[in-house]
Amino acid sequence: MKRVMCVYLPGWPLQRLGHEEPALRQRPVVVVDARAARGPRVVLASRLALQRGVRPGMPLAEAQALVPGLAVREHDAEADRRGL
After folding, report:
1. Which of 11, 43, 74, 84 is deepest in the core (most CB within 10 A)?
2. Could you tell me if residue 38 is inside a domain?
3. What is the tally of structural domains in the chain?
4. Which residues lie across from 72 on neighbouring strands?
5. pTM
6. 70 in any annotated domain
7. In a domain, 13, yes or no
């Protein structure tokens, strides 16, 4: 008998980055889609970034204006798959 399990991990890219780069855990971080149609867009934001007004879908330039020193990482779907 086959079994199927569905797992929903909406924050996985940020969790993976936190494991790979522990220093990011204490900083505001965003994961961006650099290939978005109208320039880089925020895909995910850490709790610290969210508290400072950054939101998914926001242009990267706007997020950086809100949070000086924002850590920016490009979304890497393949690394996310390998990490799982």
Report:
1. 43
2. yes
3. 1
4. 30
5. 0.87
6. yes
7. no
